[in-house]
Amino acid sequence: MILKYLKFNWNKKQEENMILGGKIYGLVLSGGKSTRMGTDKGLITYHGMPQREYLYQLLDRVCDQTFISLRKEQESEVPFGFATIADEDKYRGPYNGLLSAHSRYPEVAWLVLACDLPLIDLLALQQLIAARDPNAVATAFAQKDDPLPEPLCAIWEAKALEESVRYLNEGNGTCPRKFLINNDHVKLVFPENESVLLNANSEEEYKAALLKLATS
Predict the structure, then answer these.
(1) Do β-strands 84-86 and 65-70 pair in parallel, antiparallel, or remain unpaired?
(2) d(C-alpha 61, C-alpha 102), whole Å
(3) Does residue 122 carry a pLDDT above 70?
(4) CA-CA distances (angstroms) from residue 63 to 56, 57, 90, 181?
(5) What is the distance of C-alpha 86 from the center of its chain?
(6) Angle at the Cα of 115 (from 11 to 181), degrees rounded to 5?
(7) Which of the listed ranges 19-28, 108-117, 204-213 does the model predict with the highest average pLDDT?
(8) Which among 113, 107, 130 has a CA at the least distance from the CA of 15?
(9) Is 118 exposed, middle or buried (0-12, 13-18, 19+ CB in 10 A)?
(10) Which residues contact 59 (CB under 8 A, 6 or more apart)?
């Protein structure tokens, strides 16, 4: 009975959020070269399946539509049933995938997840969406002891991506975190479980993530 009540309340909150702020599409960023890790981070198995598929399934439970962002040559590797958006290669870094998605669906907000977040879970995504401020340019997770926005674990409103195009075209660099830091209209959210923001970009960090998963 309690589980049914919680599910009802979440669905109601999600519906209210969608009405007030518009649609949220999910995006798994999986087009990087993973040079530090030495192997494709999107294909690493933490939860019994490739990480990009696991994140896709998480996002698909809370977003209107979900996509995997990747390079064109990766599309043939994705199993049937997973929607993809290939990089347009107009920009560098994470903005390449993010703005390729925005180009395809410019009217929606995007809940973006990087593949190097092995501990992210459904409760964290629900918390982020519940805290969404559609009047901000973005609603982003951050660590309490280092309150900087996590651009690849955030909801980017459509207007933020429009501003990002101008920002990039003006030669301000290609770092999405720097864009958010320099913007006064970013809402920071501190996750109830801070470990969900653990990044695994190297073999050492990969082993640490596996240890945390095994002991959680």
Answers:
(1) parallel
(2) 21
(3) yes
(4) 10, 10, 26, 26
(5) 16
(6) 80
(7) 108-117
(8) 130
(9) buried
(10) 26, 27, 28, 66, 111, 113, 125
